[in-house]
Write a structure and sequence with these properties.
Chains A, B, C, D: InterPro entries: DNA-bd_HTH_TetR-type_CS, Homeodomain-like_sf, HTH-type_TetR-like_transc_reg, HTH_TetR, TetR_C_15. Four copies of one chain form a homotetramer. Chain A is mainly α. The first copy, chain A, contains nine helices and no strands. Chain C binds chain D through residues 34-37, 39-40, 119, 122-125, 163-164, 166-167, 169-175, 177-178, 187, 190-191, 194-195, 197-198, 200-202, 204-205, 226, and chain D through 34-37, 39-40, 119, 122-125, 163-164, 166-167, 169-175, 177-178, 190-191, 194-195, 197-198, 200-202, 204-205, 226. The structure holds a DNA duplex.
Chain lengths: 226, 226, 226, 226
DNA sequence: GATGAATGAGGATTCATTCAT
DNA sequence: TATGAATGAATCCTCATTCAT
């Protein structure tokens, strides 16, 4: 009778309603987190924003942190999709410039559409960098980046590789932050080509423009230039 | 040697203790803000960290926000010094690489020594981006950066100049963030040369390596390379 | 029988408990205000007196002042009823003595049953003489008194009328205060006839004993006696 | 060396300074009590009003209540003077009207000049009706009033006498309150004759107009008139 | 004596969480 | 399930009072 899956679609429908409620609540939480930050976001405010009572919120989340966790996880899943598409495909045939296009554009788009990422994943506001999921994700992202970089700059040793990826990732986030600070949509997007120039100027000396698939066997150590 | 000595120092005598207390409290606040953020920092925690009672804190600051304000202001003053030295001197005879050295090093040093800057001036946690002073400071910094850039890339039009400075500033902050995430001192500082390479790679195509003072009369358009 | 019954009573169901709580809290507040005054009344004490937790109090009142306001308003409403009945009916056929009976008795009764009126509406203790509502009420009361007086002493000019009403009102309050200072119920009520004598002695020379409806057209200016 | 009275006038002068300080502080306290009441008056505010530091205040008063006590006592002394002059002299030769003049005028004057009396001696704000001194004083005043009344209305029995005096005293205070509510000096004083009429109208039926010294031996029963 | 900083208990208020309906 | 009232610990802040200078 409870938690049943015996008969037809009744539990299904319940489940469905629950899912909707959860989505609703997470959306509300995202909004509230965005405007006031995690700590200052009261669960009551989230419930109000979602148009439900506090009690209802606690029907779905055991506590405030769980809301952040769930939101974080949802974002991580979406990010995984976006980054999977952007990073995990085969880039070995692309030129560096094209590679940057393929990777940066979707990431920028996703982040601009989900500003809560910044609210959640930055600053000392939240409890332990929400969910190790996110750290895992960042690690995964960096690993993918490193794999790509390793394919294009085989001569790089581990530590240099790490550092390079790290720099790119934080530069990306820094410029993203710049975008959030612009009110004007046009100005925002005008930063994208600059970001690409920035990373291109940094990476080209390290790994060259050419796709690894097109290169002769001999790797030219352009990294030595730095 | 410093502070009051001319005229009557009677009204100062007592103040001395007070001034020390204020500094003490601001230091404590900086620590607490750093570790848990502004919102989560309880005034009692700050007082405890400073080794005084809550009442004492309120003898000097009317409320919690005022603490953030005062800390912010203190940082702004220190930043003004550092940036004044770093940015306002005559760079016209320096090569771009040298310029970056002269500017980036002190800024990095200052920020690593005052990590509270990041805690205070980022995220939606604090009330109104603490004190418009800071915004003014950022604007001033950017203006100085723009002045330098304009001297080296006279062909740049206003909007491009703005964008270029903006990108540099946020890249700087992004890499700074990366530094904060490293536990290891050596790894931290290993990011500095990368930051310089990054910015050099971005700026060189725009303004060239040469100092403006050393250039032949005709300066032109190396930006075209990008 | 009273309250919601038309239309949807769904939003009312819950409210019922709330309304009861509010009344309960106001009663508690009245008690506490009475015994220690507004300022010294702690919200926790009020909550305790009402048998609820501090949080519950704040579910219904945003702050301490709001409690005073609400209580004030409730009293004003009740006073309006009592005074409406006492003052707004037609007194033109009553002798002065009977008039005083009809007016004074219910007012005294009400005030003895609601001693908080004195606690709230006197002294510099409370924020801005709680709610302009009360001032409006006092003004309304005085206006009604003046109307009655004007009907009985048409020769009185405005300023004298104002003064007469004022004196009566404050005398009433003064004697009320005397009643509050008596422990003994009998002694308390023994003051009522004295109050009436007092006011009769003051008013009779001004407006005579006779009801205006019963007087011949000529009005005798007994006020001149004073 | 301390507290000495050995030598000449040094301790005198000290004493004198102390007295001045105390007066200064009591004046300040009177002001603050008047504007915000006893409870809301912070000792720091009183010290500030007096132009001294909190520490200094506590050099002269062990605690806040002591300030109220001292102020109360000072007022009581002054009141004793005023009332002594007004009430304790021989009134047996005066007519009632003249008696009221002699008594009411100085009392009104004193109270208007010392509004703190109202702040201190009314309402539930202060700790136990400040100092039994004041209660004693009130009792003394009432006793004097009763003595006078007894001389003029020998037929009155004890309880009626008490009540009569009580009524007069509270009526006086009620009208005083009315005076404090007027901004305009002229309006204020216009209430004095009304107060006299009021009391005259009340007392005349009880004790007649004539002074007891002038009456024939058989005095009786004018009270019956009321 | 005077000063102003220091203290800490107490009071107002918030908010995550629970519970009765 | 949904609701909204209930809870109480934690937080910000005040203020009577004390203390070092």
């Amino acid at each position: 009778m409870s938690e049943a899956r015996s008969g037809g679609d009744k539990p299904r429908r319940r489940q469905a309603r629950g899912e909707r409620r959860i989505a609703q609540l997470l959306d509300a939480a995202a909004n509230v987190f965005c405007s006031v930050g995690y700590r200052a976001a009261s669960t009551n405010a989230i419930a109000r924003e979602a148009g439900v009572s506090p009690g209802t919120l606690y029907q779905f989340f055991p506590n405030k942190e769980a809301i952040g966790d769930a939101l974080s996880q949802r974002l991580v899943i979406e990010m995984r999709n976006v980054h999977g598409t952007a990073l995990s495909l085969d880039h070995s045939a692309l030129g560096l410039r094209e590679l940057l296009d393929r990777v940066i554009d979707p990431l920028v788009d996703f982040n601009l559409e989900n500003p809560v990422c910044f609210a959640l994943f930055h600053g000392p506001d939240m409890p332990q960098r929400f969910d190790e999921e996110h750290d895992l994700l960042e690690k995964a992202i960096l690993d993918q980046v490193k794999t790509i970089f390793a394919g294009r700059a085989p001569q790089l040793e581990r530590s240099a590789l790490d550092r390079t990826a790290d720099i790119c990732w934080h530069t990306f986030k820094g410029v993203l932050q710049a975008m959030f600070e612009k009110e004007d949509e046009a100005e925002r997007h005008a930063l994208v080509p600059e970001l690409k120039k920035l990373l291109y100027g940094y990476l080209e000396p390290i790994m060259g423009e050419d796709a690894p698939a097109l290169r002769p066997q001999a790797v030219r150590g352009t990294a030595g230039r730095a």
